[in-house]
Each structure stands twice: as structure tokens, then as C-alpha cells.
Task: structure prediction
Amino acid sequence: MLTIKVLGSGCANCKRVEQIAKKVVAELAVDAEVIKVTDYNDIMAYNILSTPGLVINEKVVSSGRIPTPAEVTTFVVNALEAA
Result:
């Protein structure tokens, strides 16, 4: 099972990244848990400079922008292959 974390305060961009992640997981029928991380200290632990951030299996794959659904699909597929 994949663990996908969306790092951010809950802003519109963070919500968009969460929506994209959930949509990709559903389309790929992947067993994954999408978690919102809103605590500032938890976000800083990932050493990203700006939100939104996207973390898959504890690896930061995107930060400071909204990745496209195609990019998120690639991130998820790569994480599955690495698992």
C-alpha cells in the first residue's frame, strides 16, 4: 500500500493537489492512503521550501507547485515499481 501525503496549510492549491492525487489513485485502482499534512512542523520535516508538497512513501516528489495528473500518475507508478 502506498502512503501519499499532501503537505500544506489547506489553501486552494493544496486542496487541488489532494484532489489530483485521489483521482489518480482511483483511476489506477491503487491501494493507497492519501493523508493531508497541515501541521507546520510536520511539513518542515520534509525540508520543502514552499507548499503544496506531495510525498509518496516518504519521498518528496513535488513541492511549490501543482503537478499535473499525468505527473502524479508517473509518481505513483514509479513508487509502485520501487516498492
Remarks:
- The radius of gyration is 11 Å.
- Residues 2-82 form a domain with the Glutaredoxin fold (CATH 3.40.30.10).
- The CA atoms of residues 39 and 67 lie 21 Å apart.
- The chain has one domain: 2-82.
